[in-house]
Write a structure and sequence with these properties.
Blueprint: H1 6-30
Length: about 50
């Protein structure tokens, strides 16, 4: 079985690295998080009266 030339390994490395980067960028920018809506009920203020 003949071995591949080093330039072929380098070409495969660059090709797979480029595919990996493109895949990661597409996955990162395709996710749109939903911002939580702030309502009066979700905001609770507790007044603490300390007795020293």
């Amino acid at each position: 079985m003949p071995q591949m030339a080093p330039i072929s390994w380098l070409g495969l490395f660059f090709a797979f690295s480029l595919i990996l980067l493109i895949f990661n960028c597409v996955n990162y920018y395709s996710f749109l998080p939903q911002a939580p809506e702030m309502t009066e009920k979700s905001i609770k203020q507790h007044s603490l009266n300390w007795k020293w």
